[in-house]
Specification:
With 408 residues, the protein is α+β, with helices and mostly antiparallel strands. Among the domains are: 43 residues; 93 residues, Beta Barrel (Elongation Factor Tu (Ef-tu), domain 3); 85 residues. The strands form 2 sheets. Strands 1-8-12-10-9-13 form a 6-stranded antiparallel β-barrel. It has a 4-stranded antiparallel sheet with strand order 5-4-2-7, with no helix packed on it. Helix content is 50%, strand content 22%. The relative contact order is 0.13. β9 and β10 form a beta hairpin. α5 runs antiparallel to α8 and α6 packs antiparallel against α7.
Length: 408
């Protein structure tokens, strides 16, 4: 047991693990006062280097971030103040030194355009020109084929032939054979009339003799009545013969005169209608070949070969380059500087900024769709836009539609 206790005690000049020995404590107590003071100074530094707790670290981080934010805020305020000062300086310099720029109005060149179309609906089978070609008035441009219209023309011609034949028949009158037949009927009626008149003459004389004999008492009254009846029958026969004669003569006159005037007028009208139908179809076929109505440049061709075209649809357009102008959209407060007939200076960028003179010839309101609304609720008004057109005083070489025209 004693040996064990002695083994657990540290040897002389050594210290136990983590605890100072008795000798060290004694030396520390005997140290000089200067060393003691130095030790007291080093103690706060040691305490400062000790690791901080969690709360103290958070407080330190917050303080650090607060300082950074304040520095950034001060820097931003300073930058804004500098920027405001620069902008104000530039604005003041511009007000003092800069002059207001001239108002620039941009327009566009344009010209008269003629749309070429026809009355014939059919298929485009030939094109004799192409886009960009210059054509002259009367020049053939395209061909349209319509089998339906050709068939209609054939039908109209046949109807015209039928109507013409019918009218010729009516105008020629009754056939010769019918006239001869009527002539013979007249002759027969005349012969019958002559016979009836001869019979009447005989019966009249017979009646007169019998009546004289009756008055003398030679013949009986019955004989006289029989003679009277024969006379009356002869007179009736003459009247019938006269009526037959008049009817035969009327038939002959009708045969010689032909149809009535109304029938002739109706027949002539039918022929005219048939002729008009032929002319109508021929008028449609006149547009089988489209002809240039004026001199100009082919600017657009719409259908392709083989396509169907309808009546009145434009086939191509011709630009009249000899009649060029420039069109500008101008607010009404600027119209005082652009009266009718005034010569203006314009610049054409496409021609190397060439400056030319133009004369105003057209000023017209563009309508309510081109109205500029007032920006203020009170004290302002809506400004309308006008279209102003100006024509070159002298022809301009290579001046084409679509080019920009600058008006200052």
């Amino acid at each position: 047991m004693e040996n064990n206790k002695e083994g657990m005690q540290p040897a002389a000049g050594q210290e136990s693990a983590g605890f100072p020995t008795f000798n060290e404590e004694k030396k520390r107590a005997q140290s000089s006062p200067g060393e003691k003071a130095n030790n007291e100074k080093k103690q706060p530094e040691a305490e400062a280097t000790k690791p901080l707790g969690k709360e103290e670290q958070e407080k330190a981080e917050k303080a650090k971030r607060r300082k950074i934010r304040q520095a950034k805020r001060l820097s931003l305020i300073g930058s804004m103040l500098i920027l405001v000062a620069v902008v104000a300086g530039v604005a003041i310099w511009g007000i003092i030194n800069l002059k207001p720029a001239d108002v620039t109005i941009q327009g566009q060149a344009d010209c008269e355009v003629v749309r070429v179309s026809g009355k014939l609906a059919g298929r485009l089978v030939e094109l004799y020109v192409k886009e960009g070609d210059y054509v002259h008035k009367g020049q053939r441009l395209a061909k349209i084929y319509s089998s339906t219209t050709d068939a209609t023309l054939t039908k109209a011609k046949e109807m015209r032939n039928v109507a013409s034949s019918q009218n010729a028949k009516v105008e020629r009158g009754t056939r010769y054979e019918l006239i001869n037949s009527a002539q013979k009927m007249v002759e027969q009626a005349r012969s019958a009339k002559q016979q009836a008149q001869a019979a009447e003459e005989i019966t009249r004389k017979t009646y007169e003799r019998v009546n004289n004999l009756f008055n003398e008492g030679v013949v009986s009254e019955q004989k006289r009545d029989e003679a009277k009846a024969a006379l009356n029958a002869a007179i009736a026969t003459v009247s019938t013969a006269n009526a037959a004669m008049e009817a035969a003569e009327s038939q002959l006159e009708m045969a010689r005169n032909g149809a009535q005037a109304e029938d002739k007028a109706a027949s002539k009208g039918m022929e005219n209608v048939a002729q008009a139908s032929v002319r109508e179809v021929e008028a449609l076929l006149e547009d089988k070949y489209l002809i240039a109505p004026c001199d100009g440049e082919i600017s657009s061709i719409y259908p392709h070969l083989g396509e169907l075209v309808i009546m009145g649809a434009p086939i191509m357009t011709i630009s009249l380059l000899e009649d060029m102008w420039a069109s500008f959209s101008v607010r009404e407060e600027k119209l005082n500087d652009l009266p009718m007939g005034k010569e203006i200076n314009v610049m054409i960028p496409a021609l190397g900024n060439k400056e030319v003179k133009m004369e105003v010839f057209y000023v017209h309101d563009m309508g309510s769709y081109a109205t500029w609304g007032a920006t203020k609720a009170y004290g302002d008004y809506d400004s309308k836009t006008f279209e102003v057109k100006a024509r070159p005083v002298k022809p301009i070489e290579n001046f084409r539609p679509g080019m920009s025209v600058i008006l200052k």
